[in-house]
UniProtKB/TrEMBL annotation:
Domain called Putative regulatory protein FmdB zinc ribbon: residue spans: 1-41
Lineage, broadest ranks: Bacteria, Bacillati, Actinomycetota, Actinomycetes, Micromonosporales
Residues covered by region (Disordered): 63-92
Name of the protein: Putative regulatory protein, FmdB family
Matches recorded under InterPro entries: Regulatory_FmdB_Zinc_ribbon
Stretches that traverse the bilayer: none
Species the sequence originates in: Micromonospora eburnea
Length: 92
């Protein structure tokens, strides 16, 4: 199912949920019954919460341009061990 947006000249826009690919160019307005034309709009981006939209954008960007960070995001800064045996471990 997909949500399609239509606009009645008198009553404004409204949504109709139909199986994908079955939307007709016009439907009857649910308020006045007049023919309402289909609108072509972005796929509900405005209704996506801002934090979710930012996370999706960041994930898409990271596919080609990963963020370079100096430490683990949100984590505490790395603490040097005081165990002398750890000093012999390889560094990278
Ligand atoms: Zn109407």
């Amino acid at each position: 199912m997909a949500t399609y947006e239509y606009r009645c000249r008198q009553d404004g826009s409204f949504d109709v949920t139909l199986p994908i690919g079955t939307a007709s160019p016009t439907v009857r307005c649910p308020r006045c019954g007049a023919p309402a034309g289909r609108l072509f709009s972005a796929a509900r981006l405005a209704r996506t919460p801002a934090a979710l939209r930012e996370a999706i954008d960041r994930a898409e960007r990271s596919a080609e341009r990963p963020d370079v960070v100096g430490r683990v995001p949100g984590g505490r800064p790395a603490r040097r061990s005081t165990n002398p045996a750890h000093a012999r471990l390889p560094r990278w």
